[in-house]
């Protein structure tokens, strides 16, 4: 007689969106699951934990639009478990905090299906926390009330908003965008002061997170002005004011995506919250057939970016030719990219710029080969030739618009505290894309209200040409130096 396979359902909370905030148990169960039923608010990164062989079933709900009704979800969970499957019902936040996990658990219990709840980090507490709003603070609020804003105020069997208005401490309203105006009105009618601080947090813990701060008197108008959309959480109470001290500043990083992860980690190291929105992308160009010959004829080969170094060193013949000629790098990151492949860099200027390179190269080398972008600054060539050097150039890559949806989101809806420009191209293509979206005027308005940081003089010059004032430029022209300078402000 064969072994009887017993199915089981795990009601798993995935947390607020960041996959690193999932519990170890949740991650393990996703890897082991045979069937996963998941909601619409889960991040794609979270679902990457699901094993390849698992059956994935989307059961997400939108207001007024359900893929499956709750009753159908309950039935599906029961059926899959009765087939002997290991089933994970994956939910954002915690299954038992407005996640309808209790309803699913009751159905499973009634049908004799084994199940287990796996708690998750609830958005009611973690989302305010991620924007610097502690829902309790000994000197400000010693109680917190969590409610759903999805139901219509005034129903006999529903929330008593007049009573909620009189409860002290912090009020957290989940799923309240659709009825924001009615809920705020009910709190005001119930006696809450119009001057009470209020905040809306849209898509907390995601790359599209936004924080809108106001008071009960103006938060509805601000929600309309900023076009706040679900999912968003409303927080009411004086703890909202602490965000100005506790919230990390957000920084829009516009450099190409091949530097995205490196930039994200550096920004976090310096205490910023990064928003990656590449404005440009690199297109590799075909190398001339005589590339190695021209390298051998040069007295010095110059790289002006880590990207150029990485592209050139993909070719073994070029990497070998570069072993036998002095190399110059515009700055430490480019030097590092060359040295990672066991090449020795002889020249790095004190000032990480075209002018700095020209200054250190011109007295030493009469024949210089530049290996760089097709959009490279003419300043380096002009200064080297003025000093009597013969300059050759091989264009390794061109720069094109990124066509990245994250950039469109930044232009359309983003509210960063800082815009970080790492080249003239990043500023040029940002403004071009804003014009294409008919949002140039609103972008210019935002740039006047935030901190604009530029990596060096050519970037400052291009931003000024675009009509954008620069607030910060570091003494050393590197991305990390930009962050360090901002940290001191």
In words, what does this structure look like?
The strands form five sheets. Strands 3-2-6-1-7 form a five-stranded parallel β-sheet, sandwiched between helices. A five-stranded mixed β-sheet has the order 8-9-12-10-11, with helices on both faces. Strands 15-19-18-16-17 form a five-stranded mixed β-sheet. A hairpin with a 7-residue loop joins strand 10 and strand 11. Helix 11 packs parallel to helix 13 and helix 12 runs parallel beside helix 14. The termini are far apart. The chain has four domains: 113 residues, Cobalt-precorrin-4 Transmethylase, domain 1; 122 residues, 2-Layer Sandwich (Methyltransferase, Cobalt-precorrin-4 Transmethylase, Domain 2), CATH 3.30.950; 117 residues, Rossmann fold (3-Layer(aba) Sandwich); 108 residues, 3-Layer(aba) Sandwich (Rossmann fold), CATH 3.40.50.10090. With 489 residues, the protein is α/β, with parallel strands linked by helices. The protein has 21 helices and 21 strands.
Notable characteristics:
489 residues; alpha/beta; Methyltransferase, Cobalt-precorrin-4 Transmethylase, Domain 2; Rossmann fold; 4 domains; five-stranded parallel sheet; five-stranded mixed sheet; globular
Task: Give a quick summary of the entry.
The protein is α/β, with parallel strands linked by helices and 489 residues long. Helices cover 36% and strands 21% of the residues. A hairpin with a 7-residue loop joins strand 10 and strand 11.
């Amino acid at each position: 007689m064969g072994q009887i396979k017993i199915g089981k359902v795990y009601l798993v909370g995935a947390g607020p969106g960041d996959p690193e905030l999932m519990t170890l148990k949740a991650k393990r169960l996703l890897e082991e699951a045979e069937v996963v039923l998941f909601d619409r608010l889960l991040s794609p990164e979270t679902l990457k934990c699901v094993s390849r062989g698992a059956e994935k079933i989307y059961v997400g709900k939108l207001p007024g639009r359900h893929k499956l009704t709750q009753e159908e979800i309950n039935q599906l969970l029961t059926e899959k478990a009765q087939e002997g499957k290991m089933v994970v019902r994956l939910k954002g936040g915690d299954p038992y905090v407005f996640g309808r996990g209790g309803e699913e658990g009751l159905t499973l219990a009634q049908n004799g299906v084994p199940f287990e709840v796996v708690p998750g980090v609830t958005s009611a507490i973690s989302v305010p926390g991620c924007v610097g709003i502690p829902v309790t603070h000994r000197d400000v609020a010693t109680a917190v009330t969590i409610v759903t804003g999805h139901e219509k105020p005034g129903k006999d069997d529903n929330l008593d908003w007049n009573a909620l208005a009189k409860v002290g401490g912090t009020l957290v309203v989940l799923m309240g965008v659709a009825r924001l105006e009615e809920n705020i009105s009910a709190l005001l009618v119930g006696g809450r002061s119009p001057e009470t601080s209020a905040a809306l947090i849209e898509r907390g813990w995601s790359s599209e997170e936004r924080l809108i701060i106001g008071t009960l008197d103006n938060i509805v108008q601000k929600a309309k002005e900023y076009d706040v959309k679900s999912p968003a959480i409303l927080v009411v109470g004086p703890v909202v004011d602490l965000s100005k001290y506790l919230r990390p500043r957000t920084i829009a990083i516009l450099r190409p995506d091949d530097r995205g992860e490196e930039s994200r980690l550096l920004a976090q190291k310096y205490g910023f919250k990064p928003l990656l929105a590449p404005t440009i992308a690199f297109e590799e160009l075909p190398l001339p057939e005589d590339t190695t010959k021209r390298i051998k004829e040069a007295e010095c080969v110059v790289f002006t970016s880590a990207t150029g170094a990485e592209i050139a060193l993909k070719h073994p013949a070029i990497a070998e030719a570069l072993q036998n000629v002095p190399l110059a790098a515009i700055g430490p990151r480019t030097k590092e990219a060359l040295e990672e492949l066991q090449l020795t860099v002889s020249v790095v200027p004190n000032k990480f710029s075209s002018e700095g390179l020209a200054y250190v190269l011109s007295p030493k080398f009469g024949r210089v080969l530049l290996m760089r972008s097709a959009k490279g600054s003419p300043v380096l060539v002009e200064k080297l030739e003025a000093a009597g050097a013969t300059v050759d150039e091989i264009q390794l890559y061109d720069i094109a618009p990124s066509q990245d949806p994250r950039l469109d989101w930044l232009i359309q809806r983003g509210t960063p505290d800082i815009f970080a420009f790492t080249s003239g191209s990043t500023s040029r293509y940002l403004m071009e894309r804003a014009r294409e979206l008919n949002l140039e005027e609103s972008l210019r308005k935002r740039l006047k209200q935030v901190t604009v940081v530029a990596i060096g003089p050519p970037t400052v010059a291009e931003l000024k040409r675009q009509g954008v004032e620069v607030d910060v430029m570091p003494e050393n022209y590197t991305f990390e130096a930009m962050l360090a300078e901002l940290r001191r402000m």
